[in-house]
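Bug #77: duplicate submission created two jobs. Keeping one. Sequence:
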Amino acid sequence: MQHLGVGFAAPTSDTRLFSTIGNPAFLAGFLLLSGFWAGLLAWRAQNRTWRFVWTAAIVAIGWALTLTATRGALVGAYAGVIVLIGYAALYADREKGSKQRRRHLFGGALVILVLLPLLVLGLARTPLAARSLALRRLANIALTDQSVQSRFFLWRGAWVGVWEHPLVGYG
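Kept job's structure:
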C-alpha cells in the first residue's frame, strides 16, 4: 500500500518500503519470517486452493521484501530457500522413495545457487538496475562498505562480550 501511494499507509519520500514499523530492516525481518511460514503452509496444504493462496502470499511477501531493499534480508531469503530446497530434496517423500523428485529438487537448488547471483551481477549495469534499488544494493555489496565495516566493528565487540560472560551474557 505504501509503495502504491495509498494515503493511510505512511507516504514517504524514501524509496525503500518501511511500513508503519518505521525501519526497512525491521519490516524485512518480519517479512522473512512470514514468507517462510507461508512456505510451510503451502507445502503442507491439503488441496490446490490453499496451496495457491499460500503461494500467492509468498509472491506478495517476496515483492514487499524486495521493496525494502534490505541486503541482509534478501541474502538471507536466498540462503534460506537453498537450505529448504536441499532439506526437501533429502527428506521429502522418503517413505515413498521418490528419487526422481529428489533429483529435481537438488537440480533446482543448484540452478538457483549458481544462476541467481550471476543474474544479479549481470543485471547490475543495466537500465533495470537503475530502476531497482534492491538490485543496485545487492550488486554493490563490498567488504569495504561503511555499513559492513561498522558491523564488523560491532561484531568484534560482541565477541569480546561473549568471552567475558559466556553463559549468561550481559542481558
